[in-house]
Amino acid sequence: MSATVATGTTGQQPAPDDLPPPRGAARAVWKRRLAGAGVVGVLLLATLVRGATATAGDTFVPPLGVDVPTSSAKTITVKPGEAGGDFDGTEITVSQTRDLGNQGITISWKNAPSTPDATIGQNVFAFMQCWGDPDAPDPFHEGAAKDPLWGRETCQFGALLDTPVWGGDKAPGGGTIRTVGINGLPDPAETLPPDAVIAPFRSVKGTRIGHGGKSDPYPGNLDPQTTGSDVIMSEYFDKNKTNEIPYGYTAGDGTGRVVFEAQTDMEAPHLGCGLPDSGGVIQPCWLVIVPRGHHDPLTGGELAGSDTPVNGSPLAATHWKHRIAVRLDFRSVQTPCPIDQAERATVGSEMAAPAMQAWQPALCGRTGNVYGYTPTSEDETSSAVLGSGDDSPGLGFTSSPVVGVPGGPPPVHAPMALSSVVVAFTIDNQVNPGSTNPEEELLRARQVNGMRLTPKLVAKLLTSSYQRDIPDGSKAEHLKDNYRTILADPEFITINPDFRFSRANRDIQPVMVPLGGSAANRAVWGWILADKAARDFLSGVPDPEHKDPVTGVTYHMKVNSFYQDFGLDGVVPDRFPKSDPTCSQPRPDLVPELKVCIFNKQPYTSSMTDGAQQTLKADTHSEVEFDEAKYQSSDHQIVTLKRAAPQTKGNRWVMAITDSASAARFGLYSASLLNGSDPTDLNAYVTPTKQSLQAAVAAMGPTANPDVLALDPALKKPGAYPLTMLTYAAVDPSRGQALREAYAKLIEFAAGDGQNEGVSVGNLPPGYVPLPDSLKAKARSAAEMVRRGWTAPPTPAATTTTAAPVTGGTLPARGSVPSAAPTSARPSLSAAPVPAARATDPEPVEWAQRYLLSMILGAGLLAAAAGPVLTGLARRRERR
């Protein structure tokens, strides 16, 4: 379709006991809930909340790098009469169209007709990525055979994503597949032969799947009547790989927002986006938006005010002709660095991964060096920096000081990047259909753009203290008095009043956390342990009793007993253990030996970057259901669990601990964290923004090494984000001159042009904050120290005393517990193992080979750490 363009930024179904009640019952339940609790809730909020107003439609400042249009943003204005006339004047903004990699693109719109509360079948958008320009002439046929709709053959769509629960039987038929025709009737606008079943798919590599009719059959002559198009397309994409969005909803005020995952040739080789052709031209792709209004696609009849959906796939000819296409230009997926340049190895903290990924291509042209980067645990970073020989990495990224050995070279620390740890989320407002409450209507069809979390609430999440966090948690004796989810917790609702309208029985997933240990993880626990309420909770102090006004059930929540006293022994933890051994049997009647345990229900993420990407996809990788199909097809030989499908838009509730740059990369909102002692003061909650990170870095003090700064979690500076972190380059100054020169140039680039914010190669990516001038100067000074090098002093005569470390201070193997009092000592954030994403994404097999041993060792460490806890609990129970 034509439009005015201005250049300027699937799912898991609820468990059986979580299915929504009939609509009438739901209304009755909520009338009782509001009648029984509404007045009390209002009085409670008015009594408890000070310093800010808690009302529906709560607004939050966008976190770092999110919802910020880039210079390549495009705004499309739908002209009168286009899109069937249902979207006249609608403005759609795509936040970024150039310099793209595998990332999120924010698509927002306004002045659109709202999606009805009773059906998702009207006034919605579908989004997909295509490798062919749908508005270009057909390049595959000649003469009269040219197909004006050929572009739909190049689109990644039709994985049969699950329909949102609230859509029900009023969701548009065919809305998630490639079927042509509408409601089983021929489409008069169709250009395919009459026997066509689906819109064909053609890979950019040349292979093709036909339309399923006799004139163009499926591969292997599979029967199109018994073989779904999602099965046929699984050769290229499926529910877990696709980036299609079948339903983009519009709220009552005419606005909407989705984050679309742009996929490169690495993620979707059948699309080839970002792959240079034989002439070196980098292949673009197209974002295609298909609107679905409120008129019958075949008759043109008005459907507004009815529950009747506008049926048909977005690839059906009548819908496809209203498409809006936006060109997407990608960065090359191939490295621009010459293969004959010297490679200089670096390792270290994942907090540096997004920056290094952006800097690497620019550095080889600026410095004549290729800088390799391998994320490693912080323990491994220290070993690498202190290792001997120019073939071992002499530069490691860390947020904790690397302590030199007695008599050895003192590692030089240069500040490189300022970012933060965040609790990122993808959550949809899910209010009850049929409500006439104006506050609820403000939230309908909107994605949640902010929430507040206290250290105590995060402690509850990390200790699996809600019933739904473990398998069959509602039957677990040690959680019998606990809330089913955080949504039922009055402490959460008090500071997040919008959620009081949310359906109580929705599918809330446990928070995702990275495997292994790190200074980033320790920062989270340091913030938690600096809070008295959180420490009391971890020690076993229960919440006040709370009686649900609807069910009459009385709750008396306390910490999951398998985590009691965790972190209270004077050591700040650096990892997130999964200590609860509770398991369930998904099919005890058929395969009693098969169990679902906590690692199946809440798997670790392999890195913070992966955690952010999984949050965008609403895909926790959980495995909680028996794969009966595989069991039957293998003649009962294969007994296994199947991976749950991603949650569908409208049903999503996924959270993860990740870093601010990864969250920004995938367009994720982040929680505002309490930076104060009064959880009811809404002004004390701080979002990770440029201003809040700058306030935090200004409040940082020295660690064991005075050259390395960190934030004291007990220091509650107003406006400072409490999980702000500086990432340093720790360098061994005794390495060879060529290697030292290369590392000095890297530091100088990072402190110079590398601090220029942007999305182009060499820029500081969104999610980071440029270093203050004082820290840039420290980095340049450190580069000179690296360049000058270090020479071992003459060996002194033997004495009976022991030489002290040559660094500015020592660092304990683990940090000490901070006091909740402002005068407490700052915790030392020491090195600890943490897996991280490579700056250049490896192939899956390569990743498995690289990290398999680390994962096995990590599992062993977790088992070893859990052993004493479980033993202590058993002994306490015996004494009782």
Automatic annotation (TrEMBL):
Task: Please report the name of this protein according to its UniProt entry.
Answer: PBP domain-containing protein
Q: Where is this region: Disordered?
A: 1-24, 788-840
Lineage, top-rank taxon, reads Bacteria
Cite the record's Low complexity compositional bias ranges.
797-813
UniProt cross-references to SUPFAM superfamilies, sorted A to Z: Periplasmic binding protein-like II
Give the compositionally biased regions (Polar residues). 1-13
Record field: transmembrane:
851-874
Q: What is the source species?
A: Dactylosporangium maewongense
Q: Which keywords belong to this entry?
A: Membrane, Transmembrane, Transmembrane helix
